[in-house]
Design goal:
The protein is mostly helical. The protein contains nine helices and no strands. Helix 4 runs parallel beside helix 7 and helix 5 runs antiparallel to helix 7.
Amino acid sequence: MQQAAQLFVQKGYAAVTMNEVCTAAQVSKGSLYHHFPSKDELFLSIVEEDTEQWLAEWDAIQDKITGIEDRFYALGEHYANDFQNPLICGLEEYARSRTHSEEIYLRLSQLYNSGATACRNLLQEGMDSGYLASGDLNHYVVIVCGMLEGIGRVREITAPSEGTADVMKYYRDGIKLLLQGLRA
């Protein structure tokens, strides 16, 4: 999976062949197809593992922070630290590249929902505690996740030479504006 991930990062989903993965990983085609029946399965497994790692890192970060506001800022920083994750760019390419089966769309949706869990839980806690105004949690999740994911994408396109420290300021300002609008 590591070799395949490197290939997907370097070349993009469409340009990688299963033969290349076999060569890079030094495994037979039969062995690769035994574990991953298709390139779709291989790629989605890699992205799912990356998402699980991101969520585990977030869990470790948030466990050390007590205040809701501080956790929102930490979540923004967590997104900022991951904004140039090449697998996310590859996932965007993959999701938009062609029509997928219903099963693939379901897995893509589950990937999004997994990533949105951090936002959902924090927003729910904020509303339950009275720190945030009550509202439609599902709408808030889309808005907050869209903002956090969008900040990185916009900065990546408009100022590609900016590093994480520069982008971090945009995330902090975004969280500040968000909290001003959502506070009870």
